[in-house]
Amino acid sequence: MKKILVIGAGGQIGSELVIALRNKFSKEQVIASDVKEICPDIIQDGPYQQLDILNREAVREFVISNNITDVYLLAALLSATAEKHPDFAWKLNMEGLFTILDLAKEGHLKQIFWPSSIAVFGPTTPNVNTPQYTIMEPSTVYGISKQAGERWCEYYNNKFNVDVRSIRYPGLISYTSLPGGGTTDYAVDIFYKAKRDGKFDCFLSENTELPMMYMADAIRATIELMEAPSENITIRSAYNLSGCSFTPKGLAAKIKKIIPAFEITYTPDFRQQIADSWPKSIDDSFARKDWNWEEEFTTDKIVEIMLNNVNPALLTT
Ligand code: NAD
Ligand code: AKB
């Protein structure tokens, strides 16, 4: 029987992934864990363990003594925060991955999910319909850590037969918890500010096109990838995955159709350079071929769902 540990479960992806995994298996089979002392309300319906991924011995002890079979390792610093704390970002994003890969190498785990990102690409990458295999020269601390992580995942699979699977997520859009310090966060924040203030000052310029995806699609993709037969998985670094692409200006126009008085202004900051180094759109034909990936949520659908569901009370600023 599977026993799943989600590390970094209190974040934007983890909180929804835990719910989806508990619905699929059982509450008892899915342990949420995070460095946060208090379990977030949204995942309080099942087991929770405070765990710091950087405490290698504590993580090893917990995995082994609880007979954990699968780990979803989500703890990381995202692109914008990582630029502010490069040393710590490198430590957090890499050391935790080795702890989990080593547990699998020693036979303590059956399956690992570790997310990569479109940040693995860089300014020299062809940025329209970015292929799976292409130039990868990431120019951010975060992108370098994801690129290195991908190489290590593939290495552990090749050398030690570790069943590790990964997706290069685009910017993810959701309303149940706030995003955690990325460059694509504007595409979540805009809905909260549209609803609360009727206006939004964007930290990216109006024509900055980036690949995005609604969270429900990302969660389904993750579970479908993890369930796919091993022999179908031809990529052990990370799969390109595509949902939709839009610019701040295009997104604002769609919001304006629902909230006509909505106004957007642009004050690009350091995150502009990060966004400029990333793809505008992604070719995910390998995910489609290997495990039948198909996205569901268009930009129009995302706008409608977000405006109906965001709760501005969650905002702290
Ligand atoms: P998030 O910042 O919302 O959540 C990360 C969680 O990790 C937080 O709850 C945090 O408390 C926890 N954490 C931090 N340090 C920890 C530690 N030492 N030990 C245990 N937990 C710790 O991030 P997210 O958006 O949920 O992203 C999860 C993963 O997906 C990351 O690897 C990220 O790079 C990747 N990803 C996210 C997106 C996105 O748009 N959200 C896109 C691409 C890739
Ligand atoms: C970020 O902006 O850092 C993340 C990502 C695309 O990896 N959302």
Q: How are the SSEs ordered, and which strands pair?
A:
Blueprint (H helix, E strand, L loop, with lengths): L3 E4 L4 H13 L5 E5 L13 E3 L5 H10 L4 E4 L5 H6 L1 H20 L5 E3 L2 E2 L23 H20 L3 E2 L1 E3 L1 E3 L12 H11 L2 E4 L7 E5 H13 L11 E2 L3 E3 L1 H11 L4 E4 L4 H6 L8 H7 L7 H11 L8
Which structural class do you get from the secondary structure elements?
A: alpha/beta
Which CATH first-tier class of the largest domain would you pick?
Alpha Beta
How many separate helices? Answer: 11
Task: Give the number of domains.
Answer: 2
Number of strands: 14
Average residue-wise pLDDT = 97
Order of helices and strands, N to C? EHEEHEHHEEHEEEHEEHEEHEHHH
Bound molecules: nicotinamide-adenine-dinucleotide, 2-amino-3-ketobutyric acid
Indicate the overall shape: globular
**Helix residue percentage:** 40-55%
How far apart lie the N and C ends?
Answer: 44 Å
CATH fold category name of the largest domain: Rossmann fold
Q: Report the major sheet.
A: 6 strands, parallel
CATH superfamily of the largest domain: NAD(P)-binding Rossmann-like Domain
- Give me the side-by-side strand order of the main sheet: 3-2-1-4-5-7
CATH architecture of the largest domain: 3-Layer(aba) Sandwich
Rg result: 19 Å
Q: Short description, anyone?
A:
The chain has helices at residues 12-24, 56-65, 79-84, 86-105, 141-160, 186-196, 215-227, 248-258, 271-276, 285-291, 299-309, and strands at 4-7, 30-34, 48-50, 70-73, 111-113, 116-117, 164-165, 167-169, 171-173, 199-202, 210-214, 239-240, 244-246, 263-266. With 317 residues, the chain is of the alpha/beta class.
